[in-house]
Amino acid sequence: MNELSYKEIMKSIADSLPAEVTVADVKALLGQAKETMSCYRCAALEVETKFKVLDERFSVQNERNPIESIKSRIKSPESILEKLRRKNLPLSLASVQRLNDIAGVRVICSFVEDIYMLADCLISQDDVTLIETRDYIKHPKKNGYRSLHLIIETPIFLHDEKRNMRVEVQLRTIAMETWANLEHKLRYKKNLDDKTQADISEKLLKCASICETLDTQMQDVKHTVDGLI
Ligand code: 0O2
User: Fold this and answer.
1) This prediction's pTM
2) Which residue's CA lies nearest to atom 28 of ligand 1?
3) CA-183 nearest atom, ligand 1
4) pLDDT tens digit string along 66-84?
5) With a 6 A CB cut-off, is 136 part of the ligand 1 pocket?
6) Which of 101, 161, 164, 216 is within CB 3.0–4.6 Å of 168 for a Cys-Cys bond?
7) Which residue ranges form the domains of the chain, and what is each CATH number?
8) Does ligand 1 have an atom closer than 6 angstroms to the CB of 11?
9) CB 119 within 8 A of CB 147
């Protein structure tokens, strides 16, 4: 059984629970928790800025930018509901705050080695505490998903207090991002028979392998070019 199908099974079990909690309930809860949600947005901004600073300094020293782009997001009510159900948590602000990925920052890097360099720079900052690392580059998911995930805690400074916030950081190359975006779109196609589903999974796995080869070869080219300078 691959990890995606495990997640889907868990989701379908969760979906079969009485649907007393709806997306509208989650939206209502988040509406009442504006202050907390604003703190998550501030935390994502802080982490984004940390990466922008690292990118700027690296570019001065190395004449290239290791970061292609940065995106941040606050987890959607639909995704929060899915995760609360999967984790069998009741709908409450305390449950939402137990999720590590309410604030998420995604950093798209030029080369695989930039991912590890940036991750090391981030977690060595003295206001960053590493809570968890999931290295899906060294250990890809069985469906082919690759990225480096870090759960970190970092403070935000409000007018009257300092608050430690959790943020999920995903670091990936352009190839990893392309694969993940397309896989995400294709995953939700419904009413497929088992054979078609298996065929799609196999093709996606092959595409993931092509992306991995692309990353390795682009890095080899970079090493060759670096050697010429
Ligand atoms: P969204 O829209 O970002 O909220 P956990 O319960 O924390 O143990 P979780 O949250 O599944 O498990 O953690 P994991 O495996 O580290 O993955 C979290 C996020 O990574 C996902 O967020 C996706 O953004 C991305 N991701 C993980 N696996 C896959 C995959 O197989 N394909 C794609 N395209 N993305 C993946 P959410 O919560 O799904 O969504």
Assistant:
1) 0.89
2) 145
3) 34
4) 999 999 999 999 999 999 9
5) no
6) 101
7) 3-174 (3.30.460.10)
8) no
9) no
Q: How far apart are the CA of 228 and the centre of ligand 1, in A?
A: 40
Atom of ligand 1 nearest to the CA of 104: 3
Chain segment 151-195, per-residue pLDDT in tens: 999 999 998 899 999 999 999 999 999 999 999 988 777 778 888
CA of 187 relative to ligand 1 center, distance in Å? 13
The residues carrying an active-site annotation are 168
Would you say 11 and 85 are in contact if contact means Cβ atoms under 8 Å apart? yes
CB atoms within 10 A of CB 170: 21
Contacts 24+ apart (CB under 8 A), 14-21: 14/82, 14/85, 14/86, 14/88, 15/85, 17/85, 21/81, 21/84, 21/85, 21/91
Give the residue whose CA is nearest to atom 39 of ligand 1.
Answer: 79
Task: Give the pairing type, strands 148-157 and 103-109.
Answer: unpaired
Contact yes or no for 89/95 (Cβ under 8 A): yes
**Helical (H) or strand (E) element with 52:** helix 34-62
